[in-house]
Write a structure and sequence with these properties.
Layout lengths: L20 H4 L3 H7 L3 H11 L11 H6 L10 E6 L9 H7 L1 H14 L4 E6 L4 H17 L14 E6 L9 H8 L13 H4 L6 E5 H13 L1 H5 L9 E8 L5 E6 L4 H7 L9 E5 L8 E2 L9 H6 L8 E6 L4 H15 L5 H18 L6 H13 L6 H27 L16
Parallel strand pairs: 1-2, 1-4, 2-3, 5-9
Antiparallel strand pairs: 5-6, 7-8, 7-9
């Protein structure tokens, strides 16, 4: 296997007891952190260059530093484990195989922001993950790593694993907070931001699972160690999830800045006898790329410069047998279904995108419909209450940009040209 891989979070995934405390080991990083000043912990994470691994890429240490100190209010840490976007599949296996890295990260993060209560908000459908998290938290309590006077430091922390009810919108941090408080999960108006008025109107940090799980290794090995990987502005390592038409799909932990071409070499390439057609660099809410982007460094800046987003590094790979129009329709159906309905652009826009795409995929539309869906997408982008609406427009704009001829082909043949009876229309496909 190439030395480009940097297994840290995934290092022990092949151990049969990786999810237990015996397989993970004592919380040495947490013990080290609790001997430090909380501000020194925050500074170490700032110096490491760790950026949020949930998609936005905001500097993690800076986010922690926004929490006001000496305000007399309780502080909270909330871990966003509501992973549910199509193609995104890194946090679920991380919590299954290595839950103690997350629990230890929670301790360090909570200590740094002076929080005595923390929550892991996990998607309710992943019952197997919930059970494993509960087991890990129970082990930590039994060892004295959670509860009162952790490591004799005088620091107390209570950690709660909370199951959501299954709503994509609750991956948005303020909707998650509303859900955690017992309300309907809908995004809040910002400001105030969670750092000022989050959970129970108190200062709150909301971090992604992988972000928090990366913290112990930073404290254990030093900020310079972490910053020595990745690129100048996108430092460290991350889990790249390869799925779809690839020989060996799975999780590949590598420095940011690696290319899809390099990852495909490790994964055995596209399935035998086929070639790549299009792919997502960060899940279904990021603009698609094509084979011309195989050598784009997978970091926040390079991907952004090419017109997409790194997102959650969910690399969905599609070969030439896949209909772009049908794929975009399936994604759009998801966003229309998961729209919370709070704002008009998203509620109405995703519905009409779905309706028009259905007509296009069936070969019943006209070229004018391409202008219609891009116009609808333009009226959603930047005008919806949260990022769900913006994400729904990404596959629309990018697919029309790169595969306009394929949309037109549907009109010409009166249906999807990838249907079995019409496969000869596409030559070697």
């Amino acid at each position: 296997m190439s030395v480009t891989l940097t297994p840290v979070l995934t290092a022990n995934w092949d151990r049969p007891d990786s999810f237990t405390l015996d397989g993970y080991g004592p919380y040495e990083a947490a013990k080290k952190a609790l001997d430090m000043d909380p501000d020194a912990v925050i500074q170490a994470v700032k110096d490491s260059g760790l950026r949020g691994r949930g998609g936005a890429g905001f500097p993690t240490g800076m986010k922690w530093g926004f929490i006001p100190q000496g305000d007399g209010k309780p502080h909270y840490l909330v871990v966003n484990a509501d992973e549910s976007e199509p193609g995104t599949c890194k946090d679920i296996p991380l919590m299954m195989a290595n839950p103690h890295s997350l629990v230890e990260g929670v301790i360090i993060t909570s200590y740094a922001i002076r929080a005595n209560h923390a929550f892991i908000y996990v998607r309710g459908e992943v019952l197997h993950v919930i059970r494993r998290l509960h087991a890990a938290v129970r082990e930590a309590y039994e060892k004295g790593y959670l509860g009162t006077d952790i490591f004799g430091s005088g620091y107390d922390l209570e950690l709660v694993v909370h199951s959501g009810a299954g709503a994509y919108i609750c991956g948005e941090e303020t909707a998650l907070l509303d859900s955690l408080e017992g309300y309907r999960g809908q995004p809040r108006l910002k400001p105030p931001f969670p750092a000022v008025a989050g959970l129970y109107a108190s200062p709150t940090v909301v971090n992604n699972v992988e972000s928090v799980a990366s913290v112990p290794s930073i404290i254990a090995n030093g900020a310079d160690w972490f910053a020595g990987m990745g690129t100048e502005k996108s430092k460290g390592f991350g889990i790249f999830s390869l799925s779809g038409h690839v020989t060996r799909p799975g999780q590949y932990e590598a420095p940011l800045g690696i290319t899809l071409r390099e990852l495909l070499d490790m994964a055995g390439g596209i399935r035998e006898g086929h070639r790549i057609k299009f792919w997502t660099p960060g899940g279904s809410s990021t603009p698609i790329f094509t084979d011309e982007h195989l050598d784009v460094p997978l970091d926040f800046e390079a991907v952004g410069a090419k017109g997409s987003m790194l997102g959650t590094r969910a690399l969905q790979i599609f070969d030439e047998t896949t209909c772009v129009v049908r794929t975009v329709l399936r994604w759009t159906e998801f966003y229309a279904h998961e729209s919370c309905g709070k704002c008009t652009p998203c509620r109405e826009g995703t519905y009409w995108l779905k309706q028009v795409l259905k007509r296009l995929e069936a070969g019943q539309g006209t070229e004018d419909d391409l202008a219609t869906i891009t116009d609808i997408a333009d009226n959603i982008l930047g005008r919806s209450f949260c990022a769900l609406g913006d994400g729904a427009t990404s596959p629309i704009h990018s697919s029309v940009k790169y595969f306009r001829d394929e949309y037109l082909k549907h009109f010409e043949v009166g249906g999807c040209p990838f249907d079995a009876k019409k496969s000869t229309l596409w030559g070697d496909q």
